[in-house]
Amino acid sequence: MVSKGADRFVLWPHYFDARLSRADGRRVKESLAVKAPDAKWIEAAARKVGLDAELDEAARNPATPGERSGRVLVARKGSKEQVLELVAAKMRESQDTRAA
Fold first, then answer.
1. Least confident of 3-7, 25-29, 32-36, 81-85
2. Could you give the 3-state DSSP secondary structure of residue 10?
3. pLDDT higher than threshold 70 for residue 18
4. Is 1 inside a domain boundary?
5. Would the pLDDT of 88 be above 90?
6. Can you give the pLDDT at residue 99?
7. Closest Cα partner for 80 from 30, 46, 47?
8. Is residue 74 in some structural domain?
9. How many domains does the chain have?
């Protein structure tokens, strides 16, 4: 199992999910949210923006323990909100090609 530490942020798919409200766990602004985010997509986007990313596909979010959504651990570079915005922007860019 991959563990988070003081040098990493955890990114869960629901942080980027356009179907969710902020109250339900989305952490990026609506204009950057995407449809059906998954941990592999987050990992790919994080790597494309130059972050050291590590995928943990077996992880379950404590808020939804019955769902195995996976998570991505990324190196801390700036604040978590800055990292989320960078990754979300890259995911948003690739959303159209991903759906095709």
1. 3-7
2. strand
3. yes
4. no
5. yes
6. 56
7. 46
8. yes
9. 1
Q: Give me the amino acid identity at 12.
A: W
Q: Are 17 and 34 in contact (CB under 8 A)?
A: yes
Q: Return the SS3 of 3.
A: coil
Please report the DSSP string for 23-90 in residue order: TTT--S-GGG-BSS--HHHHHHHHHHTT--EEEETT---TTSTT----EEEEE--S-HHHHHHHHHHH
Neighbouring-strand partners of residue 8: 75
CATH of the domain at 59: 3.30.56.30
The domain of 13 spans 8-95
Q: What angle, rounded to 10 degrees, do the helices at 39-48 and 80-99 form? A: 110
- For residue 43, is it within any domain? yes
Decide: 45 and 91 in contact? Cβ < 8 Å: yes
pLDDT at 24: 92
How many residues are listed for the chain in this entry? 100
